[in-house]
């Protein structure tokens, strides 16, 4: 497979490195900043430019990775598919569920592969937990809990990350979507039927008063905008009867050490498990020989970006979805995000 990359920022660089690591050729890199595109392309002896049309017109390219601000996901993916390219689209799939519907329709009409970049399916703990669930070790899983707490981690303050018109939201649509996708994946892709949620904007909105500790996509632009959430919480009920409890923060005042900074937990009627998102082991609870027992399963290290790229390449070759998120699965995540924001706005539960 020969790959084009739209967006030469940090995530585009990660995709390029992942591609080469699994034998995928990087043929062209495009970014609105031509110099940045040329710099990344130079690492792979690839062509470069600033016009996305050069990707669509390049007949040597089989597929495109799209890693640009969220507001461009839908239009760029539509153009790529209509130009005959398969697409690995960074998360979130789009800004709203109706936008996802447009992408689903286009993928069906054009026959193109459209995979959404939810990499936590490919981590050691994510794939390990899926194996435990699929083997029936937990029995019927009736509840999932997922959280990710940054203390002062608002990204790109004043830039597109914190401008709702470009990002679609804050911590929820940036980090929360990973947790929602992983939860859906582990629960067997149920459909949400009810959502109660709240989203808070307490830190980034203070702009210059915000004392940050790290800043992806920094430095801050204090002349810019911050009109998005930096903390979100929700309870999601599914058609299966299972539930998912979500908390996610770009910034919060939870004391360090109170709980792990990240955690996913599954409760089943025969067993349970938990893990940290970036961990190397699962903690398991089960009944063995008539006794309740806790155990630890250590997992070998993997590179989730490389595994995702290999999975995408196989989907392109076979025209069959692999482990990666399908458009329909990507829409399920976005429908929950939309419902959380609606529940927050109306201060009441939402029925889907």
From TrEMBL:
Residues 2-118 form the Gfo/Idh/MocA-like oxidoreductase N-terminal domain. Residues 129-273 form the GFO/IDH/MocA-like oxidoreductase domain. One of its GO terms (molecular function) is nucleotide binding. InterPro entries: Gfo/Idh/MocA-like_OxRdtase_N, Gfo/Idh/MocA_Oxidoreductase, GFO_IDH_MocA-like_dom, NAD(P)-bd_dom_sf. Its EC number is 1.-.-.-. The keyword Lyase does not apply. SUPFAM superfamilies: Glyceraldehyde-3-phosphate dehydrogenase-like, C-terminal domain (SSF55347), NAD(P)-binding Rossmann-fold domains (SSF51735). Keywords: Oxidoreductase. This is Putative oxidoreductase YcjS. It holds the Pfam family GFO_IDH_MocA_C3. It comes from the Bacteria.
């Amino acid at each position: 497979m020969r790959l084009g990359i739209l967006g030469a920022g940090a995530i585009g660089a990660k995709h390029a490195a992942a591609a080469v690591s699994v034998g995928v050729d990087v043929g062209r890199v495009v970014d609105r900043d031509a110099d940045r595109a040329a710099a990344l392309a130079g690492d792979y002896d690839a062509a470069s430019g600033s016009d996305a049309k050069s990707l669509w017109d390049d007949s040597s390219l089989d597929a495109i990775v799209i890693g640009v601000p969220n507001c461009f996901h839908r239009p760029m993916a539509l153009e790529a598919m209509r130009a005959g390219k398969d697409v690995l689209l960074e998360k979130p799939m789009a800004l709203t569920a109706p936008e996802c519907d447009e992408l689903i329709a286009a993928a069906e009409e054009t026959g193109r592969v459209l995979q959404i970049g939810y990499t936590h399916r490919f981590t050691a703990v994510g794939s390990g937990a899926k194996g435990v669930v699929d083997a029936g070790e937990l029995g019927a899983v009736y509840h999932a809990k997922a959280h990710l707490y940054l203390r002062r981690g608002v990204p790109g303050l004043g830039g597109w990350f914190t401008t709702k018109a470009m990002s679609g939201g804050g911590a929820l649509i940036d980090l929360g979507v990973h947790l929602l996708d992983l939860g859906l994946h582990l629960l067997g892709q149920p459909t949400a039927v009810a959502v109660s949620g709240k989203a808070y904007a307490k830190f980034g909105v203070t702009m210059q008063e915000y004392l940050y500790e790290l800043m992806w996509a920094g430095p801050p632009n204090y002349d810019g905008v911050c009109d998005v959430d930096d903390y979100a919480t929700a309870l999601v009920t599914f058609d299966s009867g299972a539930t998912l409890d979500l908390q996610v923060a770009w910034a919060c005042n939870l004391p360090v050490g109170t709980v792990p900074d990240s955690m996913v937990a599954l409760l089943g009627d025969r067993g349970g498990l938990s893990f940290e998102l970036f961990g190397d082991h699962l903690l398991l609870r089960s009944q063995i020989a008539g006794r309740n027992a806790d155990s630890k399963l250590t997992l070998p290290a993997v590179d989730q970006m490389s595994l995702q790229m290999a999975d995408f390449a196989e989907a392109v070759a076979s025209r069959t979805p692999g482990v990666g998120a399908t458009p329909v699965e990507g829409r399920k995540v976005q429908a929950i995000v939309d419902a959380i924001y609606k529940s927050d706005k109306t201060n009441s539960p939402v029925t889907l």
